[in-house]
Amino acid sequence: xxxxxxxxxxxxxxxxxxxxxxxxxxxxxxxxxxxxxxxxxxxxxxxxxxxxxxxxxxxxxxxxxxxxxxxxxxxxxxxxxxxxxxxxxxxxxxxxxxxxxxxxxxxxxxxxxxxxxxxxxxxxxxxxxxxxxxxxxxxxxxxxxxxxxxxxxxxxxxxxxxxxxxxxxxxxxxxxxxxxxxxxxxxxxxxxxxxxxxxxxxxxxxxxxxxxxxxxxxxxxxxxxxxxxxxxxxxxxxxxxxxxxxxxxxxxxxxxxxxxxxxxxxxxxxxxxxxxxxxxxxxxxxxxxxxxxxxxxxxxxxxxxxxxxxxxxxxxxxxxxxxxxxxxxxxx
Length: 332
Fold this sequence. Notes:
Distance between the termini: 40 Å
Number of helices: 12
Low-confidence stretches: none
Protein backbone atom coordinates (compact mmCIF):
# COMPACT_ATOMS: atom_id res chain seq x y z
CA UNK A 1 0.00 0.00 0.00
CA UNK A 2 1.34 3.49 -0.82
CA UNK A 3 1.79 6.05 1.92
CA UNK A 4 -1.00 8.55 2.56
CA UNK A 5 -1.89 11.27 5.04
CA UNK A 6 -4.19 10.61 7.97
CA UNK A 7 -7.46 12.13 6.60
CA UNK A 8 -8.09 14.32 9.65
CA UNK A 9 -4.55 15.67 9.63
CA UNK A 10 -4.65 16.23 5.86
CA UNK A 11 -7.87 18.25 6.09
CA UNK A 12 -6.37 20.60 8.66
CA UNK A 13 -3.10 21.14 6.81
CA UNK A 14 -4.87 21.74 3.49
CA UNK A 15 -7.08 24.35 5.13
CA UNK A 16 -4.01 26.08 6.58
CA UNK A 17 -1.54 25.82 3.73
CA UNK A 18 -3.80 25.45 0.71
CA UNK A 19 -3.50 22.79 -1.96
CA UNK A 20 -1.07 24.69 -4.17
CA UNK A 21 2.63 23.89 -4.10
CA UNK A 22 4.60 26.30 -1.94
CA UNK A 23 7.53 28.18 -3.50
CA UNK A 24 10.77 26.25 -3.09
CA UNK A 25 13.23 27.98 -0.77
CA UNK A 26 16.88 27.70 -1.87
CA UNK A 27 19.28 25.67 0.26
CA UNK A 28 21.05 28.02 2.65
CA UNK A 29 18.28 30.63 2.85
CA UNK A 30 17.93 30.80 6.63
CA UNK A 31 15.99 34.06 6.84
CA UNK A 32 13.14 32.94 4.61
CA UNK A 33 12.82 29.70 6.54
CA UNK A 34 12.70 31.65 9.82
CA UNK A 35 9.92 33.85 8.49
CA UNK A 36 8.01 30.87 7.13
CA UNK A 37 8.22 28.88 10.36
CA UNK A 38 7.15 31.83 12.49
CA UNK A 39 4.28 32.51 10.09
CA UNK A 40 3.22 28.85 10.39
CA UNK A 41 3.43 28.49 14.16
CA UNK A 42 2.39 31.93 15.47
CA UNK A 43 -1.30 31.69 14.46
CA UNK A 44 -1.47 28.06 15.58
CA UNK A 45 -0.01 28.95 18.95
CA UNK A 46 -2.53 31.74 19.43
CA UNK A 47 -5.42 29.28 19.06
CA UNK A 48 -3.92 26.75 21.48
CA UNK A 49 -3.33 28.96 24.53
CA UNK A 50 -4.83 27.38 27.67
CA UNK A 51 -7.58 29.15 29.63
CA UNK A 52 -6.49 32.22 31.57
CA UNK A 53 -5.38 31.50 35.11
CA UNK A 54 -4.36 27.88 34.49
CA UNK A 55 -0.61 28.48 34.29
CA UNK A 56 1.83 30.93 35.85
CA UNK A 57 4.65 32.07 33.56
CA UNK A 58 7.79 33.65 35.02
CA UNK A 59 10.93 34.77 33.20
CA UNK A 60 14.37 34.17 34.67
CA UNK A 61 17.82 34.61 33.19
CA UNK A 62 21.18 32.97 33.56
CA UNK A 63 24.60 33.80 32.15
CA UNK A 64 26.33 31.21 29.99
CA UNK A 65 30.03 30.41 30.19
CA UNK A 66 30.70 32.78 27.26
CA UNK A 67 28.80 35.66 28.86
CA UNK A 68 25.48 35.42 27.00
CA UNK A 69 22.32 36.30 28.94
CA UNK A 70 19.96 33.38 28.40
CA UNK A 71 16.18 33.60 28.80
CA UNK A 72 14.64 30.81 30.89
CA UNK A 73 10.83 30.79 30.96
CA UNK A 74 9.26 28.89 33.87
CA UNK A 75 5.78 27.42 33.37
CA UNK A 76 3.93 26.34 36.52
CA UNK A 77 0.39 24.92 36.30
CA UNK A 78 -1.81 26.60 38.90
CA UNK A 79 -3.30 23.24 39.88
CA UNK A 80 -0.03 22.45 41.66
CA UNK A 81 -0.29 25.50 43.93
CA UNK A 82 3.02 25.25 45.83
CA UNK A 83 4.48 21.84 45.02
CA UNK A 84 7.07 20.35 47.30
CA UNK A 85 9.81 18.22 45.82
CA UNK A 86 7.93 17.61 42.58
CA UNK A 87 9.24 16.76 39.13
CA UNK A 88 10.07 19.25 36.36
CA UNK A 89 11.21 19.28 32.75
CA UNK A 90 13.75 21.24 30.73
CA UNK A 91 12.41 22.02 27.25
CA UNK A 92 14.11 22.78 23.92
CA UNK A 93 11.90 24.10 21.12
CA UNK A 94 11.93 23.06 17.47
CA UNK A 95 12.95 25.07 14.43
CA UNK A 96 15.54 23.13 12.45
CA UNK A 97 18.42 24.54 14.55
CA UNK A 98 17.90 27.89 12.78
CA UNK A 99 14.45 29.15 13.80
CA UNK A 100 11.80 29.27 16.49
CA UNK A 101 11.75 30.86 19.91
CA UNK A 102 10.26 30.41 23.35
CA UNK A 103 8.26 33.60 22.79
CA UNK A 104 6.47 32.37 19.66
CA UNK A 105 5.74 28.94 21.14
CA UNK A 106 4.73 30.06 24.64
CA UNK A 107 0.98 29.35 24.16
CA UNK A 108 1.68 25.80 22.95
CA UNK A 109 4.14 25.16 25.77
CA UNK A 110 1.62 26.49 28.29
CA UNK A 111 -1.12 24.25 26.92
CA UNK A 112 1.07 21.15 27.26
CA UNK A 113 2.08 22.11 30.80
CA UNK A 114 -1.56 22.48 31.81
CA UNK A 115 -2.54 19.20 30.11
CA UNK A 116 0.19 17.25 31.90
CA UNK A 117 0.03 19.25 35.15
CA UNK A 118 3.82 19.35 35.40
CA UNK A 119 6.13 22.40 35.55
CA UNK A 120 8.63 23.09 32.79
CA UNK A 121 11.60 25.36 32.12
CA UNK A 122 11.84 26.48 28.47
CA UNK A 123 15.36 27.45 27.41
CA UNK A 124 15.63 30.10 24.68
CA UNK A 125 18.85 28.65 23.28
CA UNK A 126 20.80 30.52 20.61
CA UNK A 127 20.24 29.62 16.96
CA UNK A 128 22.55 28.76 14.09
CA UNK A 129 24.21 30.20 12.07
CA UNK A 130 24.74 33.04 14.58
CA UNK A 131 26.27 30.33 16.76
CA UNK A 132 27.42 26.84 15.87
CA UNK A 133 27.44 23.49 17.63
CA UNK A 134 27.55 22.67 20.45
CA UNK A 135 26.18 26.04 21.69
CA UNK A 136 22.46 25.11 21.55
CA UNK A 137 23.25 22.10 23.76
CA UNK A 138 25.51 23.97 26.18
CA UNK A 139 22.88 26.72 26.42
CA UNK A 140 20.35 24.04 27.33
CA UNK A 141 22.77 22.64 29.89
CA UNK A 142 23.07 26.13 31.42
CA UNK A 143 19.29 26.07 31.81
CA UNK A 144 19.42 22.63 33.41
CA UNK A 145 22.14 23.80 35.79
CA UNK A 146 20.05 26.82 36.76
CA UNK A 147 17.02 24.62 37.47
CA UNK A 148 19.16 22.24 39.53
CA UNK A 149 20.56 25.13 41.57
CA UNK A 150 17.16 26.78 42.11
CA UNK A 151 15.18 23.57 42.60
CA UNK A 152 14.37 24.18 46.27
CA UNK A 153 12.85 27.62 45.74
CA UNK A 154 10.80 26.33 42.79
CA UNK A 155 9.54 23.29 44.68
CA UNK A 156 11.42 20.85 42.47
CA UNK A 157 13.21 17.67 43.47
CA UNK A 158 16.60 17.99 41.69
CA UNK A 159 16.64 14.22 41.27
CA UNK A 160 13.33 14.31 39.34
CA UNK A 161 14.22 16.38 36.28
CA UNK A 162 13.78 15.27 32.67
CA UNK A 163 14.39 16.80 29.25
CA UNK A 164 11.91 17.17 26.40
CA UNK A 165 12.11 18.66 22.93
CA UNK A 166 10.58 18.39 19.50
CA UNK A 167 12.27 18.33 16.10
CA UNK A 168 15.55 20.26 16.44
CA UNK A 169 14.73 20.56 20.13
CA UNK A 170 14.41 16.78 20.28
CA UNK A 171 17.90 16.49 18.84
CA UNK A 172 19.17 19.03 21.36
CA UNK A 173 17.45 17.13 24.17
CA UNK A 174 19.07 13.87 23.06
CA UNK A 175 22.49 15.52 22.86
CA UNK A 176 21.93 17.13 26.26
CA UNK A 177 21.43 13.67 27.74
CA UNK A 178 24.82 12.69 26.31
CA UNK A 179 26.41 15.90 27.59
CA UNK A 180 25.08 15.33 31.11
CA UNK A 181 26.39 11.75 31.03
CA UNK A 182 29.82 13.05 29.98
CA UNK A 183 29.82 15.61 32.80
CA UNK A 184 29.12 12.89 35.35
CA UNK A 185 31.95 10.80 33.94
CA UNK A 186 34.34 13.77 34.18
CA UNK A 187 33.27 14.72 37.70
CA UNK A 188 32.55 11.31 39.19
CA UNK A 189 33.74 12.46 42.61
CA UNK A 190 31.06 15.17 42.86
CA UNK A 191 27.82 13.57 41.63
CA UNK A 192 25.52 15.95 43.53
CA UNK A 193 27.07 19.04 41.91
CA UNK A 194 26.28 17.88 38.38
CA UNK A 195 22.58 17.84 37.46
CA UNK A 196 21.02 14.56 36.42
CA UNK A 197 18.31 13.65 33.93
CA UNK A 198 15.80 10.95 34.81
CA UNK A 199 14.07 10.68 31.43
CA UNK A 200 14.17 12.06 27.90
CA UNK A 201 11.15 12.70 25.67
CA UNK A 202 12.18 13.13 22.05
CA UNK A 203 9.40 14.24 19.70
CA UNK A 204 10.23 13.50 16.04
CA UNK A 205 13.84 14.42 16.88
CA UNK A 206 16.32 15.85 14.37
CA UNK A 207 19.27 13.62 15.20
CA UNK A 208 21.62 12.97 12.31
CA UNK A 209 23.48 15.38 10.04
CA UNK A 210 23.99 12.51 7.57
CA UNK A 211 20.27 12.00 6.77
CA UNK A 212 20.19 9.40 4.02
CA UNK A 213 18.28 9.08 0.77
CA UNK A 214 17.02 5.52 1.16
CA UNK A 215 14.24 4.07 -0.99
CA UNK A 216 11.76 4.51 1.86
CA UNK A 217 12.64 8.18 2.28
CA UNK A 218 12.21 8.77 -1.45
CA UNK A 219 8.70 7.31 -1.21
CA UNK A 220 7.67 9.85 1.44
CA UNK A 221 9.24 12.82 -0.36
CA UNK A 222 5.86 14.22 -1.55
CA UNK A 223 4.59 14.34 2.04
CA UNK A 224 7.50 16.14 3.67
CA UNK A 225 6.75 19.37 5.54
CA UNK A 226 10.42 19.63 6.54
CA UNK A 227 12.29 18.81 3.35
CA UNK A 228 15.73 17.52 2.56
CA UNK A 229 16.72 21.06 1.49
CA UNK A 230 15.45 22.45 4.79
CA UNK A 231 17.40 19.80 6.67
CA UNK A 232 20.60 20.48 4.76
CA UNK A 233 20.21 24.18 5.48
CA UNK A 234 19.77 23.56 9.21
CA UNK A 235 22.71 21.21 9.61
CA UNK A 236 24.99 23.36 7.44
CA UNK A 237 24.15 26.35 9.62
CA UNK A 238 24.91 24.39 12.79
CA UNK A 239 28.02 22.47 11.70
CA UNK A 240 29.38 24.36 8.71
CA UNK A 241 31.84 22.42 6.57
CA UNK A 242 32.03 19.65 9.20
CA UNK A 243 28.51 18.43 8.37
CA UNK A 244 28.66 14.78 7.37
CA UNK A 245 32.33 14.54 8.31
CA UNK A 246 34.04 12.14 10.71
CA UNK A 247 34.60 14.53 13.63
CA UNK A 248 30.97 15.40 14.48
CA UNK A 249 30.28 14.35 18.08
CA UNK A 250 27.18 13.03 19.84
CA UNK A 251 26.85 16.38 21.62
CA UNK A 252 26.53 18.02 18.20
CA UNK A 253 24.38 15.36 16.50
CA UNK A 254 23.01 12.62 18.72
CA UNK A 255 22.46 10.34 15.73
CA UNK A 256 26.23 9.75 15.70
CA UNK A 257 25.77 7.63 18.84
CA UNK A 258 27.20 4.14 18.98
CA UNK A 259 26.17 1.46 21.47
CA UNK A 260 28.95 2.19 23.94
CA UNK A 261 28.19 5.92 23.96
CA UNK A 262 24.50 5.20 24.55
CA UNK A 263 25.06 3.04 27.63
CA UNK A 264 23.80 4.75 30.78
CA UNK A 265 21.54 7.28 29.05
CA UNK A 266 18.18 7.94 30.75
CA UNK A 267 15.07 6.05 29.63
CA UNK A 268 13.49 7.51 26.51
CA UNK A 269 10.13 8.07 24.90
CA UNK A 270 10.32 8.79 21.15
CA UNK A 271 7.62 9.28 18.55
CA UNK A 272 7.80 10.27 14.90
CA UNK A 273 5.35 10.53 12.03
CA UNK A 274 5.33 7.91 9.32
CA UNK A 275 5.72 10.70 6.74
CA UNK A 276 8.60 12.48 8.44
CA UNK A 277 12.10 12.88 7.00
CA UNK A 278 13.47 11.94 10.43
CA UNK A 279 11.71 8.57 10.63
CA UNK A 280 14.60 6.35 9.58
CA UNK A 281 17.22 8.13 11.69
CA UNK A 282 14.87 7.95 14.69
CA UNK A 283 14.37 4.22 14.14
CA UNK A 284 18.15 3.79 14.00
CA UNK A 285 18.56 5.74 17.25
CA UNK A 286 15.94 3.61 19.01
CA UNK A 287 17.77 0.48 17.87
CA UNK A 288 21.05 1.81 19.27
CA UNK A 289 19.40 2.63 22.60
CA UNK A 290 17.96 -0.87 22.77
CA UNK A 291 21.32 -2.51 22.06
CA UNK A 292 22.82 -0.34 24.81
CA UNK A 293 20.25 -1.49 27.35
CA UNK A 294 18.41 1.84 27.51
CA UNK A 295 14.66 1.51 28.05
CA UNK A 296 12.73 3.17 25.23
CA UNK A 297 9.08 3.44 24.22
CA UNK A 298 8.80 4.20 20.52
CA UNK A 299 5.85 5.06 18.28
CA UNK A 300 5.60 5.58 14.52
CA UNK A 301 2.44 7.61 13.93
CA UNK A 302 0.60 6.38 10.80
CA UNK A 303 -0.23 9.00 8.19
CA UNK A 304 1.48 11.77 10.14
CA UNK A 305 3.96 14.30 8.70
CA UNK A 306 6.43 16.44 10.62
CA UNK A 307 4.89 18.68 13.32
CA UNK A 308 1.57 16.91 12.82
CA UNK A 309 0.17 17.67 16.27
CA UNK A 310 0.71 21.42 16.05
CA UNK A 311 -2.22 22.11 13.76
CA UNK A 312 -4.38 18.99 14.00
CA UNK A 313 -4.77 18.95 17.78
CA UNK A 314 -8.37 17.71 17.60
CA UNK A 315 -7.67 14.64 15.44
CA UNK A 316 -7.96 11.18 16.97
CA UNK A 317 -4.39 10.34 15.99
CA UNK A 318 -3.00 13.40 17.74
CA UNK A 319 -5.08 12.85 20.87
CA UNK A 320 -3.79 9.30 21.23
CA UNK A 321 -0.23 10.49 20.73
CA UNK A 322 -0.62 13.29 23.28
CA UNK A 323 -1.91 10.82 25.88
CA UNK A 324 1.30 8.82 25.52
CA UNK A 325 3.46 11.94 25.83
CA UNK A 326 1.55 13.16 28.89
CA UNK A 327 1.92 9.74 30.52
CA UNK A 328 5.68 10.07 30.23
CA UNK A 329 5.69 13.71 31.37
CA UNK A 330 4.00 12.48 34.54
CA UNK A 331 6.33 9.51 34.99
CA UNK A 332 9.14 11.00 37.11
